[in-house]
Design a protein that fits this description.
The complex is a heterotrimer of chains A (459), B (363) and C (287).
Chain A (H helix, E strand, L loop, with lengths): L1 H27 L30 H12 L20 H11 L6 E7 L5 E7 L5 E4 L1 H9 L8 E2 L16 E2 L9 H13 L6 E5 L8 H9 L4 E4 L4 H15 L2 H24 L9 E6 L3 E3 L4 H8 L3 E2 H4 L1 H6 L5 E3 L14 E6 L7 H12 L2 E2 L2 E2 H4 L7 E5 L4 H12 L6 H14 L15 E2 L1 H8 L1
Parallel strand pairs in A: 3-6, 4-5, 6-7, 8-10, 8-12, 12-15
Antiparallel strand pairs in A: 1-2, 8-9, 9-11, 13-14, 15-16
Helix pairs in contact in A: 2-3, 4-7, 7-8, 7-14, 8-14, 8-15, 12-16, 14-15
Chain B lengths: L9 H34 L8 H13 L8 H38 L11 H15 L8 H24 L6 H24 L3 H11 L11 H17 L1 H7 L3 H6 L4 H23 L5 H13 L3 H25 L5 H20 L8
Helix pairs in contact in B: 1-3, 1-13, 2-3, 3-8, 3-9, 3-11, 3-12, 3-13, 4-5, 4-6, 4-7, 4-11, 5-11, 8-11, 8-13, 9-13, 12-13, 12-14, 13-14
Chain C lengths: L1 E11 L2 E12 L2 E6 L6 H8 L7 E6 L2 E2 L5 H7 E4 L11 H6 L11 H14 L15 H14 L4 E5 L7 H17 L3 E5 L3 H7 L2 E6 L2 E6 L1 H4 L2 H8 L1 E8 L2 E9 L8 H15 L10
Parallel strand pairs in C: 3-8, 3-9, 6-7, 7-8
Antiparallel strand pairs in C: 1-2, 1-4, 4-5, 9-10, 11-12
The chains are: A alpha/beta (459), B mainly alpha (363), C alpha/beta (287).
């Protein structure tokens, strides 16, 4: 009698352990990363074939194609059902879509991006994307966040050694600068194309640097069949789409990371929306964004759209003088240390600075002081922000968009979004395995500087 | 004293005269060869394995219509040479030639070895027009964007010239008056330019300033046609007028007595020169010293006969600018206007010093 | 041919230079214009060939007002030899003289022009200088080149502004003699401004004496070059004698320029000396 009972108890225990383990693994692992995850990924994969405008290409898209072909759905409602960009949806589109669903090597992919004038267009390239050259920080970093560093054949400029360390060791330094691609750099680019087996896969361009792609250079790209993919990814939500799309194009683990990145980012954004999205304008925290130490971001700047995503209210809505003075989509230097003196009712000042990581404690302290107390041609930043110290924060512009948004939310709604929560978001991205943050910890990355930190460091 | 020297026969004179002409043609040939050399040098790309010889090969092949395999190194080098280096070199040739012949004309017309195309305020006018477009966005015509800056500069350059022509109907113009008026106009435009530059932000200021400093960057096949047409037409006219220019350099009284209506001719030359200079300067900014120095260099070798100095100074000016461009190319990112000034200033200096040796003449 | 100058006046802003000049000059002839510095000689001839425009009055050449003649047309008729040459951009002698062919030049005339130039250079005795640079010549050679330039213009009227002032005595005589001969052989009306009264007296057909912006006297050398005229116009005491039918001036003394010296005392001394020497009666001066 006892033997049978023991066996039964053992079996029950084993089952219990297995069940508990499964539950623990299910919840403890990639918190909420199954298709029935916490929030929808609101980014649309910018690839033709993504007929249902979600974040991936799968059988659901094939269903829509069938519907459009049979006439149940209209191509006008599902423009991405035209997979090969020929104007209609037919068998050829279905064949191409099947190849995409199968993630077949060598498939021609039609990517939605911008043209040189900033208008939407479609560019074709080969899947999976290899031997790319990025230009512009706002394109280079998303490439790396999608773990695409391994596929970078050459780069024009790399200003952040640690953050951009995932650029392949064999990648060629083409000798450009942040603001310019010189003739010599372009020659290096074309030489790279000549020396690369099969030629370069694509030139990835950040739209803010498009002026460097002159007519002559654009003609070069066309003649040599090098696709040019242009995105404007400075704003947080655009960045997510870019990482997602690039991840898909690179294929393999990059696609996975791209999806994970998007998922996590939207989790954060939706959480913020839930908590503060429904606040009225009077209840919201107003903000002024700054960049390059003492430049004020204009009304339509991409920094502002990120801060609004974080739940803030742009200050120009509150103050019509400010709105008039700072019209535009770039940034304006503060004319004097009194520039902010009329705006004492602003809720937060969000100053954006790109800061490399991989720092030790001394490095962090130094960076904090150099940022807070920056020497602007003899005048310290503290003079410009006198009276606003308790509302001023610096946020690291190199971080993933959602992380920046999280810190902005913390800065504006400290009660709803604690520092620990924001740090947790950063930690999640580190844990995700995205290449630029590899090996980093909360102590080696200077993500956020506020007055408390500054006083602590200078005490 | 005279009878001790060898007698010159009538035929002997003709022979010597034709020999002198031959010498001038040799100088011209040398200049042209130099130009060909520098075009090759400038087209020299950083592409490995493409040296001077290969560069000429590539150019020759391109002219013949031969093509290299797509996306190969030579294919890229060919594209670079034809789309970037060649128009750039051609622009240097055209600009150098135009500025030099304008300088020749100016110096003969004013009988002043220190005159150059900018003496009448054209450069300040052009800068003012361009900077208006860059800083304030004001366009004097309906053209906007890049070409807007060019048209603005052109219109701005013509203003001093037309102003002087207008005043010439009312007051008696001597060369000195012309230059003084030009200087006064320069001062005025310069003050406006300074005002605009001082009240704008750093980035725009840099664009505006960089425009002023002469540079051949960004010369493409599009900007060439106007420059080429104006230069060719203008220089043909100047060469047709070269014997009149010779007469002008004899002095005002002698010129009148030899049948040249000095005042009218001077105004005509002024307008012609303004158009040519404006056409160049609107695209390149202010490249100085070529108009001043190239004619002198040529005169040192072949004398002051404008029938030869005019065409040969074109070749010399082109060569000079190509050489300066090549030097600028080696120190990447230095605009050619700067290099030209660095070369031109000591040469100018020497010219002034030589001039004081004897009263009047330098040669 | 005839030059008629009709009530011509000229002034630079407020300072008048020529006052109401009326004159007829008939050619061919060799005419000399004499007078002290600043009296308006250069200005007068500049008014003839349109280098200057008279402030009032007209100049007629063969009945045609010069204002109605273009500068180019005028250059075919009137040659001009300036006092000095501009050598900022010097040419060879041949090229400089070739400039004189400019009013007549056509495209293919190079060799023909060269012949004319050569002949003129030979006539002036400077053919060996042909290929030399203009600014390497002496002042005398300069003047001969200027002269050659004026001559190759093959003009009907030739205006010369002190063309022999830098030449030595041999060449002064030779050039003036040559000019006289040319006026006869080629039928040119030659008008020459000169400071050398004697050489002008020796060769000129008629003399125009100017004083204080006006025509003081016109006529044959014998008529115009008198002791009284010289005293009034030049302010010198002289003795005029006859040499081969032409007057010759022997200079005696100058009226002092030093304003402190009493002129009447000087005049008295001069009168005494003249009486002492028993000088011949001076010819009655024309008013």
């Amino acid at each position: 009698m006892e033997k049978k009972t023991t066996t039964i108890i053992a079996a029950v225990v084993v089952v219990a352990i297995v069940v508990v383990a499964a539950v623990l693994i299910g919840f403890g692992g990639n918190g909420g990363n199954d298709s029935s995850g916490d929030s929808d990924i609101a980014s649309q994969l910018q690839i033709r074939g993504n007929a249902n405008d979600d974040y991936t290409i799968d059988e659901k898209d094939m269903e829509i194609l069938d519907d459009v072909i049979s006439g149940d759905k209209s191509i006008d409602d599902y423009p991405l059902a035209d997979v090969n960009n020929d104007g209609n949806v037919d068998e050829t589109d279905k064949q191409l879509l099947q190849d995409l669903i199968d993630r077949k090597d060598g498939t021609t992919v039609y990517v939605l991006c911008l043209d040189v004038n900033g208008k939407p267009t479609t560019v074709s390239c080969t899947y999976p994307l290899r031997n790319v050259v990025p230009y512009g920080t706002n394109m280079q970093l998303p490439t790396l966040y999608a773990n695409g560093g391994q596929y970078v054949a050459g780069y024009f400029v790399s200003s952040y050694e640690t953050a951009e360390s995932s650029i392949s060791d064999s990648a060629v330094d083409l000798g450009g600068t942040q603001r310019q691609i010189s003739d010599a750099a372009w020659k290096n680019f074309t030489t790279l194309d000549a020396n690369t087996e099969g030629g370069l896969g694509a030139l990835l361009v950040d739209y803010s640097g498009i002026a460097q792609i002159t007519d002559v250079r654009a003609a070069d790209l066309e003649a040599a069949d090098i696709p040019m993919i242009i995105y404007s990814s400075a704003d947080a939500t655009s960045e997510i789409t870019t990482v997602l799309t690039l991840g898909f194009l690179f294929g393999g683990d990059c696609e996975e990371i791209g999806v994970e990145y998007a998922q996590k980012s939207w989790d954060v954004i939706n959480l913020i929306e839930e908590k503060v999205g429904s606040l009225s304008n009077d209840e919201k925290c107003s903000y002024i964004c700054c960049t390059m130490y003492i430049y004020i971001c204009e009304n339509d700047s991409t920094f502002n759209s990120s801060a609004s995503t974080a739940g803030g209210l742009p200050y120009y809505i509150v103050n019509s003088d400010f709105s008039e003075t700072y019209a535009g989509d770039g940034s304006t230097k503060m004319q004097s240390v009194e520039a902010l003196s009329n705006y004492t009712d602003v809720g937060a000042i969000l100053n954006n600075r790109s800061m490399d990581w991989g720092l030790d404690e001394a490095g962090i302290e130094e960076l904090v002081i150099d940022t807070w107390d920056h020497d602007n041609k003899g005048v310290s930043s503290t003079m410009y922000f006198k009276g606003f110290e308790d509302r001023l924060v610096y946020i690291n512009n190199l971080l993933p968009g959602a992380v920046k948004v999280a810190y902005m939310a913390h800065a504006m709604y400290g009660d709803d979004f604690s520092r620990e929560w924001a740090d947790g978001v950063l930690q999640d991205f580190i844990d995700m395995g995205t290449a630029p943050l590899e090996g980093q910890t909360l102590d080696t990355v200077l993500a956020y500087i506020d007055y408390d930190l500054y006083r602590e460091v200078t005490a | 004293m005279e009878y001790e020297e060898e007698e010159l026969t009538r035929d002997g004179l003709k022979e010597e005269y034709h020999h002198a002409i031959a010498r001038k043609i040799i100088l011209l040939t040398v200049c042209v060869l130099g130009i060909v050399l520098f075009v090759g040098l400038l087209s020299l790309s950083n592409y490995e394995g493409v040296g001077l010889k290969e560069t000429y090969e590539i150019i020759w092949n391109h002219i013949l219509g031969n093509e290299y395999p797509s996306k190969s190194l030579f294919w890229w080098a060919d594209r670079y040479i034809w789309n970037t280096a060649f128009p750039h070199a051609l622009a240097a040739i055209v600009a150098g030639a135009a500025l030099a012949i304008c300088g020749t004309m100016m110096q003969s017309m004013m009988v002043n070895p220190l005159a150059d195309p900018y003496s009448t305020g054209i450069s300040s006018g052009a800068c003012f027009g361009a900077i208006c477009a860059i800083v304030v966005g004001i366009s004097f015509s309906s053209v906007t964007g890049e070409m807007g800056i060019v048209t603005n500069a052109f219109i701005g350059a013509m203003v001093p010239a037309l102003l002087i022509v207008f005043l010439a109907q009312r007051i008696h113009m001597t060369p000195a008056t012309l230059i003084l008026l030009g200087t006064a106009i320069s001062y005025f435009f310069n003050s406006m330019i300074t005002y605009l530059m001082v009240t704008t932000d750093a980035d725009t200021l840099q664009s505006a300033y960089m425009w002023q400093v002469g540079s051949l960057d960004g010369m493409s096949w599009d900007s060439l046609p106007i420059m080429v047409v104006v230069t060719v037409a203008g220089s043909v006219i100047v060469m047709l007028l070269s014997s009149k220019l010779n007469v002008m350099s004899l002095g005002e009284n002698s010129a009148i007595s030899l049948g040249v209506d000095v005042e009218k001719f001077r105004l005509f030359c002024l307008v012609l020169m303004a158009v040519m200079t404006a056409a160049i300067v609107s695209f390149t900014g202010i490249i100085g010293f070529i108009g001043l120095v190239a004619p002198h260099m040529v005169r040192l070798v072949i004398g002051s006969d404008n029938r030869f100095v005019a065409p040969i100074s074109m070749a010399a000016g082109a060569l000079l600018l190509l050489a300066a461009d090549y030097i600028a190319f080696q120190f990447s990112d230095i605009p050619v206007g700067v290099v030209m000034s660095v070369i031109g200033s000591p040469v100018f200096f020497l010219i002034i010093l030589w001039q004081t040796k004897k009263a009047g003449a330098i040669y | 041919m005839q030059i008629r100058i009709d009530n011509v006046e000229f002034s630079y802003s407020s300072a008048p230079v020529l006052n109401d000049i009326s004159l007829d000059i008939d050619g061919p002839a060799f005419v000399s214009i004499l007078g002290p510095n600043g009296v308006g000689k250069s200005t007068l001839i500049h008014c003839i060939n349109k280098i200057l425009q008279p402030t009032s009055g007209s100049v007629f050449i063969d009945g045609k007002d010069v204002r109605e003649t273009s500068i180019k047309e005028l250059a075919k008729q009137i040659g001009y030899v300036p006092y000095s040459a501009n050598d900022t951009f010097p040419l060879t002698v041949v090229d400089t003289v070739m400039m004189g062919r400019h009013p007549h030049s056509k495209w293919k005339s190079l060799d023909n022009d060269l012949d004319v130039v050569y002949d003129t250079l030979k006539m002036l005795g400077i053919s060996h200088l042909a290929m030399r640079q203009f600014n390497e010549l002496s002042a005398g050679q300069h003047q001969k080149v200027m002269l050659a330039r004026g001559l190759v213009q093959e003009p009907k009227i030739l205006l010369l502004d002190e063309p022999t002032s830098n030449l030595d005595i041999r060449h002064q005589l030779d050039v003036t003699k040559m000019l006289k001969r040319l006026s006869v052989e080629k039928g040119i009306l030659i008008i020459m401004i000169s400071h050398d009264i004697n050489i002008a007296a020796k060769y000129a057909d008629s003399v125009i004496l100017m004083f204080q912006g006006k025509i003081f006297d016109v006529g044959t050398p014998r008529e115009v070059i008198t002791e009284d005229n010289l005293r009034t116009v030049y302010g010198v005491e002289s003795r005029v004698i006859d040499d081969e039918g032409r007057p010759h001036v022997i200079l005696r003394d100058a009226l002092p320029m030093d304003e402190r010296i009493n002129p009447s005392a000087v005049m008295a001394r001069i009168r005494e000396r003249r009486e002492r020497e028993g000088a011949a009666e001076s010819q009655p001066a024309e008013s």
